[in-house]
Amino acid sequence: MASTCPNCGKKLKWYNMKAECSECGVSIPNFNWEGRLEEDAEKAEKKFASFYKSMNIFSYSIWGTKLRRLRIILSLIPAIGFILPWGYLESDAQSIGIDLLGLFTNGKSLLDVIGDFFANKSVYFSNMAYEGNSGVLTFSMLAIFLMLLSFVFAVIAFFLILFTFKHPKTKAMVVFDALSILSAAASAVFIIMASNSASSQTAVNFGSFSLYNISGGISWGIFVAIALLAVAFAANLLVAKAPAKSDEELEEERLAKKVAKEEKERQEDIRKEKEREEAEKRAAEEQERIVAEAKAKLEAKKKKKEKKD
After folding, report:
1. Which of 101, 83, 77 minimizes the C-alpha distance to 229?
2. Pairwise CA distance, residues 50 & 54, whole Å
3. How many whole angstroms separate alpha carbon 205 and alpha carbon 183?
4. How far, rounded to the nearest angstrom, does the alpha carbon of residue 145 sit from its chain's CA centroid?
5. Contact 48/31 with Cβ under 8 angstroms?
6. φ/ψ of residue 207, rounded to 5
7. Residue 297 to residue 290: CA distance in whole angstroms
8. Nearest-CA neighbor of 254 among 69, 60, 66?
């Protein structure tokens, strides 16, 4: 219930349960309902206009030009690079691949290593401390961490394309793409360092995995991943530097398209109305012809009968 009567302004108490004001007798829920309805319609129209404007800006930011359409595709493709093998550690016991699903390398996959790490964190940190934080295990875990970090940066860069649609000239995606590339390159460096350290370590307790007579190195997948990230970086950079339409220009185009669409619909309605009128006219003419023929036949029969009589 309103705190005051909308007609006379009388203050209403919590116990005023009636729909009518005790002072002026007006029905509070129905007071000026036409005006309130028009006000609600105006508010709804403004909200819809704001929504359509935002959606128009969003669609332009994502796929408004050929370059932007290409950019959104090239920003998705780098996800493939994180499925490919980035490196490997082979031994006479168990082998470990820096390969997310283990599709391209033998032995334990990256998912196996991550699961083992969270199950035996204390063991990993103890083993890394034992090798002075500068051995096969330490460098391998740093390589994995940087690989995951690179993936996170790439995901952030992609979603920034969606979330920053009101700022088509922003270079935020470029920054995160660059961070993703640097993280991937650093991961490659640590993979090389891990494989170089293998010559001085005969055996390594890689969490719950045991490695003996280790050899390793980087794999072809990391080069593909960095290349795909570089392509996404270039696409975002080109979009940031390319001319972009202002919000006012986009709104003018939207309104012009709306007017053109309404005019087209109006012309279509006019055409349909003309067709309906012509169809009615033809039907009326056909009916007149049928009636005229029927009358003529009746008249002929009547004359024929009169002659016989």
Report:
1. 77
2. 6
3. 26
4. 27
5. no
6. 70, -120
7. 11
8. 60
Q: What is the pLDDT of residue 20?
A: 76
pLDDT < 70: residue spans in the chain: 1-2, 14-17, 308-309
Residue (of 146, 164, 168) closest to 229 by Cα position: 146
Q: Residue 16: what pLDDT?
A: 66
Report pLDDT for 14: 62
φ, ψ of residue 20 in degrees (nearest 5): -95, 145
The pair of structure tokens assigned to 277 is 């009128």
Of the candidates 24, 38, 39, the one whose C-alpha atom is nearest the C-alpha of residue 5 is 24
What is the predicted pLDDT for the residue at 169?
Answer: 78
For residue 11, what are the β-bridge partners? 4
Q: What is the dihedral of CA 244, 249, 255, 256, to 10 degrees?
A: -90
Q: What is the DSSP code string of the chain?
A: --SB-TTT-PBPPTT--SSB-TTT--BTTTTTHHHHHHHHHHHHHHHHHHHHHHHHHHHHHHHSSHHHHHHHHHHHGGGGGGTS--EEEE-SS--EEE-SSSSSSSSB-HHHHHHHHHHSHHHHHHHHHHTTT-SHHHHHHHHHHHHHHHHHHHHHHHHHHHHTTT-TT--HHHHHHHHHHHHHHHHHHHHHHHHHHGGG-SEEEETTEEEES-EEEE-HHHHHHHHHHHHHHHHHHHHHHS----HHHHHHHHHHHHHHHHHHHHHHHHHHHHHHHHHHHHHHHHHHHHHHHHHHHHHHHHHHHHHH-
pLDDT of residue 160: 93
